[in-house]
Amino acid sequence: MTDTPDYAGHRARLQEKFRLSGGDALAEYEFLELILTRAIPRRDVKPLAKRLLARFGNLAGVLTAAPEELLDISGVGEGVVCLFRIITHAGARIARTALQKGPVLSDWVKLSDYCTMTLAAEKVERFVILFLDAQLQLIKAEPQQTGTINHVPVYAREVLKRALNLNATHVILVHNHPSGNPEPSANDLKVTDNLVQVLAAGGIEVCDHLIVGRGNALFSFKNKGLL
Predict the structure, then answer these.
(1) Looking at the DSSP assignment, which residues form a beta bridge with residue 142?
(2) What architecture is the 6-89 domain classified under in CATH?
(3) pLDDT in tens for each of the 227 residues of the chain?
(4) Where are the domains of the chain?
(5) Fold topology of 104-220
(6) Which of 31, 61, 75, 88 is the most exposed place for a label (fewest CB within 10 A)?
C-alpha cells in the first residue's frame, strides 16, 4: 500500500469547499490551484499558483498572460498554457452570449468581461467592432483587422459600409495593446476621431472606444471624456 500524498487531502478539501460554497468562498490562489490540478494531476500546485499570481497580479492576468511569458515560470508546461487558453476562449464565448441579453451599455461588467476575455491575451493588435441597433442591443461582434505588436490599420469607410449593411445605428470600438498599457496613443486618438466623423456622416454613433491591456486593464474613451 502506498502512502497518499499530502496534497491529495488538500485538493479534496478545496474541491469540497468549492462544491459547497462556490468559487467566491475560495481565495484567488486556491481557485487557481483548482484550475491547475486539471493540467498537473500529480503534484502540489499551491506554490505554482502563488508564483503565477505574484508574476501576473491576479487571476485574470494569469489566464490572459502570453504563452511565452507563462512558459518562463518554473512548473508551467504546454498543458497549463493550453488549459488557460481553453478557459479564456470559453469565457469569451460566454461573455459574448451574455452581451446579447439586453442593451449592451446597460451592464459595464458584461461589456468589460467580453473585451478582456476576447483580446487581453492577444500578442498583436486586433480591432473588433460591436455593431448595435437603435435599442443598443448587439447585432454582431465582428473582428475588423489584425495588425502588429503596436499598430492595427482601421479603414473608416469600410466600417461605415459594414455598419450600414447590418442596419446598425451605433457601434462600440474595441482594440488591444499587447504591451499591457491601455492608455491611448496619439494614433489611437486620431483614428478614433476619424471614425467618429466618417460614421456620423452615415448616421452611425460611436458610443465608446475601449482599449484592452493586460489582465483586466481597460481604458474607456467615453469614461475619460474623450467621446
Answers:
(1) 129
(2) Orthogonal Bundle (1.10)
(3) 455 565 667 777 888 888 887 777 788 988 999 999 989 888 889 999 999 999 988 888 898 888 888 999 999 999 999 999 899 888 888 888 888 787 888 888 889 888 888 888 788 888 999 999 999 999 999 988 777 777 778 889 999 999 999 999 999 999 999 888 999 999 999 999 999 999 999 999 999 999 998 877 899 999 999 99
(4) 6-89, 104-220
(5) Cytidine Deaminase; domain 2 (3.40.140)
(6) 75
